[in-house]
Amino acid sequence: MEFKEVIRDRFACRKFDGREISKEQLAAVLEAGRLAPTAKNLQEQHIYVAQGEALAKIDAITPCRYNASTVLIVAFDKNNVFVYPGQKRDSGVEDASIVATHMMLAAKDEGLNSCWINFFDPEKAAHTLGLPENEEILRMLDLGYKQENVKPLAGHFLRKEINETVSYL
Questions:
Q1: Residue of 15, 9, 6 lying closest to 157 (CA atoms)
Q2: How far apart are CA 24 and CA 14, in angstroms?
Q3: Dist. CA 102–CA 52, nearest whole Å
């Protein structure tokens, strides 16, 4: 699939058919996350894969699994981030977002559908999943196959004109 098609056709799937994804597809998605750029190449991300019985823990955290057969939990090590000048921001959230985005686009390229989930309490989720205290969950990513006839929401393809979102200085 051409990259332009991947970014154009990917949408947040909210109805999965429950079929398992292959080990090869999962490996390709995880590899895309591993290769994603991070500030100062700190690679502070940690991806947890929930499948099978582990999905019950996800269902206890969020109603947004939508019957996906795999959920990727995207976390980052809060103690291994780059702090930017001014000391008000660090690289944890942005790097984990880049990693998640790479994996989401790789999923589409692998013929899978995904949904970016942020409807959960990160502290409760970390506790429920037994994550180390130094890690913060940023997002979860549903992965799987969409149910037949599922399409993007009606407004998915509506976009502002480029001159409304881009300014040249």
A1: 9
A2: 23
A3: 24
pLDDT of 30-50, one tens digit each?
999 999 999 999 999 999 999
Count of helix runs (H) and strand runs (E) in the chain = 6, 4
3-state secondary structure of 104: helix
Which residues are within 8 A (CB) of 165 and not within 5 positions of it... i.e. 6 or more apart?
Answer: none
Distances (CA, A) of 117 to 1, 58, 80, 89, 138: 25, 11, 24, 23, 9
Residues 6+ apart with CB under 8 A from 54: none
* pLDDT tens-digit series, residues 122-141: 999 999 999 999 999 999 99
pTM exceeds 0.90: yes
Amino acid at residue number 141: L
Predicted pLDDT of residue 153: 85
Look-up: residue for tokens 């037994």? 130
> Under DSSP, is residue 163 helix (H, G, I), strand (E, B) or coil?
helix
